Please model this.
Amino acid sequence: MKAAVLHEIGGIPRYEDFPEPVAGDGEVVVEVKAVAVENVDKAMATGTHFASKQFLTQLPAIPGFDGIGTLPDGTLVGFGRPRPPYGALAERTVVAKSNIVPAPEGVDPAVAVALSSAVTGFAVRTAAELAPGETVLIQGATGVAGRLAVKVARLLGAGRIVCTGRDDVALQELRTLGADTVINTAVSDEALVRAYTDAAVGGYDVVLDFLWGRPTEMLLRALTPEKLKMAKPTRLVQAGESAGPALTIAAQSLRMSGVEICGVGKNLDATSMADAYNQVVEWARDGSLTFDLERVPLSQIEAAWQRTDLRGRRLVVTSSSEPKCATGED
Ligand SMILES: NC(=O)c1ccc[n+]([C@@H]2O[C@H](COP(=O)([O-])OP(=O)(O)OC[C@H]3O[C@@H](n4cnc5c(N)ncnc54)[C@H](OP(=O)(O)O)[C@@H]3O)[C@@H](O)[C@H]2O)c1
Model:
């Protein structure tokens, strides 16, 4: 069969022949229909993701964490965690039967697979327990996950939504998605601290952070009181690291700032993930949640993997036999 084959850590997957997968006990071979290429897949392939060693156990290997495909009887399913060295970016892959879920009915597989990024936006509720009307700051809102999070936060009842990014045009687009205030992080440290302070008005209740690194360091500076007083609590949820894998936190940034830091995984289990996914599918079906995606065939994986011009569009690798049914695209 054909697959996107990775020969070295940090390399570019190439469209090549790879041995057919064979199902072992409790496994099934899936005919792949659609796979969203996300930063996590690239971080796994470059060895920079904390779970890289778990999934890249040998080389050559096929990247791709999850996708939508069909079982041998033709049933359309969602699948995750193929057995290494098999990954999702192939004509066929092999997964444990326990890692199969029904695919949403009446939703284009390319849309259904990209919607998993919208589930991260649910962390404002699952991890941060957002109450209706609370102010939310989304860091890195011009990316795919960030744009979806803006819409999800709005649909979950957020009050003011403040968004950060680096591109003024993309930031203005966010206003049509539900952002009330936008902040460009590509300014001096002092200007950025001031922008976070000015945009906070009554304070940020929840921060969903896809950036980390310098912007979050400046945010913590902005949230640190300059006088001895009790600050309003801010639940900061760590979701990504587009601006850097680490940050330095001054002791005083936590001591009196009211900042509580947790990860998107807080309170997440199979049930809450399924509930969140079903809800975003429902929103995609009724048109309240739309987003941009770009489809490419598996044969173009080498060029697609290196794309840097997606500007908030999710790249979805599709098989040529994928059924068409437009739901969820802007
Ligand atoms: N934990 C989860 O469940 C989950 C799910 C999805 C994504 N993520 C993570 O979240 C992050 C974003 O994912 P994505 O799919 O939305 O990626 P994306 O579409 O590539 O968007 C990246 C975002 O980060 C910004 N950015 C990139 N480099 C930056 C830098 N050096 N300084 C400041 N801003 C920078 C981009 O701004 P521009 O628009 O200006 O380029 C954009 O807003 C990644 O780390 C990803 O792994 C986590």
User: Anything to note?
Assistant: Residues 322-327 have pLDDT under 50 and may be disordered. The pocket of NAP is lined by residues 38-40, 117, 120, 140, 142-146, 165-167, 170, 185, 210-211, 215, 239-243, 264 (CB under 6 Å).
